[in-house]
Design goal:
Elements: E1 6-11, H1 17-33, E2 39-43, H2 51-61, E3 65-70, H3 77-88, E4 95-98, H4 106-118, E5 129-135, H5 141-155, E6 161-166, H6 174-184, E7 188-193, H7 200-208, E8 214-215, H8 223-236
Parallel strand pairs: 1-2, 1-3, 3-4, 5-6, 5-7, 7-8
Amino acid sequence: MHHQPVLLVIAHGSRDPRHAATVHALVRRVRSLRPGLRVETGFLDFNVPSVQGVLESLAAEGVRDVVALPLLLTRAFHAKADIPAVLRDAPRRLRIRQTEVLGPSPLLLSALERRLYEAGLTTVDKSSTGVVLASAGSTDPEAIAVIADIAREWWHTGWCAVRPAFASASLPRTEDAVRELRELGCSTVAVAPYVLAPGFLPDRIARGAAGADVLAGVLGPAPEVARVLLERYDAARSPRLAAVGA
């Protein structure tokens, strides 16, 4: 019998207990969408189990194939440097493929809209609503450019305007983007956090949204996010992708 690779979801980790709780809720959603798939969770920092610990346990069980999925929305430092480094230190018997990060994806735009409507926005408001696409921020120019591209793409779906904003490392801040949308004449201003789980930077986004009419929740275990995880898993199983360390 052919065994499908184990999906290892690699989360950043946080001192904020809401972070791990949200990651686990998302992983439960993934399991519910594909009941036969074994899904494990490992954290880079602050939370247990560690990624290294999960990999060692899987190797000890006799698992051979692992698909490692960075629970990240943009391809910044963690996806490019520290996650590959952790995977290179994995037990040699494991054959590991690292997936692409989650974003960008049309499903994530759907999840952002889901969260806005859950927060009280109505569909008839779209053309008069300006949206702040509020991300955690990064020092990586590629990650910043991707957020700007997503904002432009989302604007073309019918919003009054969409502006990117960042909680750290880059400008503008959420409150500045809210002010700009007011000055543009958008009658409703909404803030959509482009973040997966609660924590320090999402809290900063929320404070910056004080002048907005609507603040959406984090993406968290939205069904669309779970579907993106499975899309990335399926793509990484392609034999065209080289295994880490192979």
